[in-house]
Fold this sequence. Notes:
Chains A, B: It comes from Actinoplanes friuliensis DSM 7358. Two copies of one chain form a homodimer. Chain A is of the alpha+beta class.
Amino acid sequence: MGEIGPAEPWVVREIGLPDELRQAESVFALANGHVGLRGNLDEPEPFGMPGTYLNSLYEHRDLTYPEAGYAFPERTETIIDAPNGKLVTLTVDDEPFDVRTGDLRRHERCLDLRAGTLHREVEWGPVRITSTRLVSFPHPSVAAIRYEVEALDRPVRIRLDSDLLANEEQPEPRDDPRASAVLHAPLRSLSHSDDVLVHRTRRSGITVASSVAHVSEPGEVSAEEDRIRFTLTTVVHPGTPLRLDKFVAYAWGTGDSDDDLAGTAVRDRDEAVRAGFETLLDEQRDYLDDFWDSADVELDGDPEVQQAVRFGLFHVLQAGAQAGPHPIAAKGLTGNGYDGHMLWDTESYVLPVLTYTHPACVGLALRWRHAALPAARERAAELRLAGATYPWRTISGAECSGYWPAGTAALHVNADIADAVLRYAAAAGDDTFVREAGLEILVETARLWCRLAHEDDAGVFHLDGVTGPDEYTALVDDNIYTNLMAQRNLRGAAQYCELFPERARDLGVSADEPRAWQETADNLALPYDNRREVHEQHAGFARLQEWDFASTKDDDYPLMLHYPYLDLYRRQVVKQADLVLAMVLRGDAFTPAEKTRAFEYYEARTVRDSSLSAPAQAVLAAETGYLELAHDYLAEAALLDLRAGGEASGDGLHIAACAGVWMALVQGFGGLRDHDGQLSFAPRLPSHLPRLKFSLRWRYSRLHVTVTPTTVTYAVTDEDLSFHHYGEPVDLKAGTTVTLDLPPVEEKAAPPAPAGRAPARRRDALDR
Amino acid sequence: MGEIGPAEPWVVREIGLPDELRQAESVFALANGHVGLRGNLDEPEPFGMPGTYLNSLYEHRDLTYPEAGYAFPERTETIIDAPNGKLVTLTVDDEPFDVRTGDLRRHERCLDLRAGTLHREVEWGPVRITSTRLVSFPHPSVAAIRYEVEALDRPVRIRLDSDLLANEEQPEPRDDPRASAVLHAPLRSLSHSDDVLVHRTRRSGITVASSVAHVSEPGEVSAEEDRIRFTLTTVVHPGTPLRLDKFVAYAWGTGDSDDDLAGTAVRDRDEAVRAGFETLLDEQRDYLDDFWDSADVELDGDPEVQQAVRFGLFHVLQAGAQAGPHPIAAKGLTGNGYDGHMLWDTESYVLPVLTYTHPACVGLALRWRHAALPAARERAAELRLAGATYPWRTISGAECSGYWPAGTAALHVNADIADAVLRYAAAAGDDTFVREAGLEILVETARLWCRLAHEDDAGVFHLDGVTGPDEYTALVDDNIYTNLMAQRNLRGAAQYCELFPERARDLGVSADEPRAWQETADNLALPYDNRREVHEQHAGFARLQEWDFASTKDDDYPLMLHYPYLDLYRRQVVKQADLVLAMVLRGDAFTPAEKTRAFEYYEARTVRDSSLSAPAQAVLAAETGYLELAHDYLAEAALLDLRAGGEASGDGLHIAACAGVWMALVQGFGGLRDHDGQLSFAPRLPSHLPRLKFSLRWRYSRLHVTVTPTTVTYAVTDEDLSFHHYGEPVDLKAGTTVTLDLPPVEEKAAPPAPAGRAPARRRDALDR
């Protein structure tokens, strides 16, 4: 019966009970980057998967290989559940409240994207139950719940058991290697009292203090090692609802820290109690008002996408806002998918959005990468490389990838991090960050590329044996994405060493090093097939055997679950945008004609078995004039977590795809580019979408851009701003506005896609 | 104190106690291909690793991957110990005999290569102990031991406990991924009696019946689930030795077989008892006399190599003689290394030797591959390929490789099997085999290549994304070894379909198929670097970065234990002969000048981190006129297991390297080639080696070839024989001899090898 209701601009509403509990729990997850609560029901049952996450609370797990090799990681890190403070068990006239039993007349949940709350209304038997849950943005360690029970027409006996519960039972992991390896009872109790539990993980040595307080009618508190329970028994009369305000706060850190974690958790909780639930609500809304003011995207003509882009931005904010000094994981704090690891999508998808909408947290995210430099240097030494080699997947900074051809070999992650540093440095103008953290990342990653690059007889430099974003090829020579991003990395490092010469000297950068970086960058191979007149994803790609799409059945996708790598790696079949993503991030390296030819060539070979693909394809489709197709890809990315159904997001949302909706709109239809730190726009909107408006920050300016199919209006506030519009410089004083005509775009039919793999025609859906 | 004594022509003698028990147990292992006993001492302690192996007695073990992929094998097979019948515990005047205690005055063991026995003589305290052990070639299920105790100067009280013991304690596995995963107590007792134990493996469902009988003075027999013990207590007087003859026989099979395995084991044992130990000895010698008559190799001028080539041939025979209907494992039955798996070395190294020396077992070995066709077809279907895809490593025929880039991707194993079929078919003229088994293997492997091959714009066919013999590159395009062997496979399949058209029709070979095979074969890419004028190991190899050998330290070898694949795969560093092996097996595809250039080029880049390398390098060194270098490589291969010391062979002998000694001599100095089923010779012997003599079989002929530095004499017996000598046809009547002059060879200094990796100069060792 349950489903996401019709699109509303600022609310995601679920009407009835969810069909897929795990999926709904991800969609309705609340988080602030520091603490995350999956959208479980208040009562313990039913549930898909519990989920109370503290950023970087993880346990170690051994990795074993049938045939191990040198430098294969011997252990991994797995996100684990913190004590769950969401639980409120209701008993009505001795009958436990369970949505699966009794007389359920109404069940509705709303994720309010401006309030930053999850609100629930239930009518069940003789009572109405409402709950409102938040994970506070301004108070990063705090979550709070208001739980109310109202007697509808007669007095009812009510019992509430409100728990803070450690070591909850977990469901068995699903049979998917990408899902998390769940650890049972990962927490060992150190101490417990009426208002705080202290636990420690068994192997990773992380201590967690969890405190809880209840504001309500008087009740009883009991405490044991893994549980604090507040119990309240009363009779509720019609017109006089029973209210329980529950405040939870966490503090955690490595075992050898001297911090009084229990004291911190209690103090943070007490502060929240003192402020009260209403104040927490108000502060939450203020925080979000400020965010939306410079982050909101409006799209007329497609209400579902309108809703989805805000939903996506909200979850991107939830993943990143208070993440520092910890990483931003691929699933944010919405599930335990990918073991809670962060991957390259953080720097390549999530941080670009936050750089333009909420830059403060980007600096912290990159400072986390800076703090992880010692581990990356150690890994580089272990791999017999130079500089730093960042992990493919990690929580703490240690490499946790168990399949090296699509992990360790994907060295582009290092250039992706450098790219995020360069973007943030340019957009935020944060010189302190560059001096304290950014430059060192640039230098150490440049050293990696310089060590890897190999000059051939003709003076061309090669990066051999690496894996690009497309995981359907691996260990290739001269992956063009990697080479172009490494080029940017090398040049950026040289440029910033020039800008910060003293700091460069401190980092031991010799006079020769930047010259070598420049030379390497200038001579890196960029594979090109002369006969087909198209760039190659890697050297020799266009010579490989074509995939037989005509014989590939629908249920053969995703291909990686039905074909061996042996088959995938040696064919022209692309899992996800690779060269196409390079044409977004390094669009300056291609002519428009080259982009069109390459886009068309790779469209025919890209199957989108990764959610990272559609956003990049949307951007390039827009740039090459395939505006309808761009809308199709935009919609695919936008509806993935919210409306695609099924179990796809059961282990957590695709935060990068959430960010990708913004990318598709702002970089695609808005034409935002930032090559070499230069802000530029080339908007283009299909005629069936009347208006796109987006805002962004650039240093101390805010820019508001309104695009129609024929015009664009730029409005600048706070400070003057210069940028390019279709290659022409535009200088706008703060408080001024300019409206410019857009060049006409001839709408074109989409180029051929692999049989059966074209995205759904969005206009067909809208016309229905 | 202990060591292998000075080289004797027909005996390997150990004087004193071995320093490395595990190593000695491998060297002194006895086997017949069906049953194998490691060379453990008679008494239970001390031991390096027990070892009583029955070919294909294995247990299943789960394979788990940190990140699994489609068609990654989910379980492997591990060789396990059968009940150990070697054990004889001696107590002398209440003191247990242990070589580590008491007065040990003499300890000597002899592996007699003509008698096929391991003989031991010990003087310890008041007694002399002698034992003689054999694993019967003519009675494949039978092992026998004669154990004698002699009082030296006064009567002594003797107790003998002779055991047949199941589920022995095993040492912990060494920390080397190549070693076996030892399974504790793998056998479950089904029944036991005074003379036969019946067990079954827990998961693989193999039933083993082990029977024992003792012929001696009267004693007592006790039996329990895992042990039959014969105990004898007596007083031994000087001049009247106590003798115990112990006979053990095994029968085993899958659990659902209806065979009376216990009955079979008892019957075989009883036959052996009836024959008696002396008769077993006589039959053993007769069998070996016959073998040596057409297999022996004599080399004057290097006694250690002379001994080693016989030692190697003996162990090759021990691995293969009675292996059918089971596989010949990489370690034979001398240890549990590689989990007891067979790999491609069987077809590419071991079977060629047996084809010319003991062809009967080659037909059986290849019939085993034929029996494994259903599994190979199933694997091909799983891998979305066509025809058959044989496993990289296996016992039963199922793929057991846990690292696919150096396992599943090494598809050349299929062509190696086809090559062995073609060689055996030509050399043995066994048409029945071709009809019943060989042709189907050829056809199914040809279908694999035809499916894999991809035609480019220029009409060149490619085999992309495969791994050749050199495991320091992987997933490459157009590995030249693979392409050339696939070419032979395709052409051979077409040719034999023409020779056996009815059988081909039965196999569903259409008229078009052989044409497609021919076309594919004729157009397969053979990478060549025009600038360097040298063939490439794979497309682009010569463009890769060079390895920095100057900075690589001695203890950085083997490189795979000290560098990541990431580093190895993208450089010009070669673990083992690959292109060089192709120039041996497909020498017809290269001109002499191409061979010399390629040999020199790859010599400079080959580190020989595999024992498979030196034999192939020896052969090509001889062919290209580097005769001293050929001798160096010959000696390295020859002395590896016998005199290299250390733990290298502790898990079992390198049977392929044992075969490689013959290769180095007969294909190297003898210049034997068999391209396209045509026997040819081009002998060349360095001036410091006076004489090489070898014998071989070709169909019903035996050929005896005697090479000196200046002449060669061919003597044919049994039947007329035609072959080529330096490209010229020679037709010899049975019983005739011809002596021909050899072209002079200008001795050349060895081409450069990687720093520190040149083989030891054998002449220097001989001159000392």
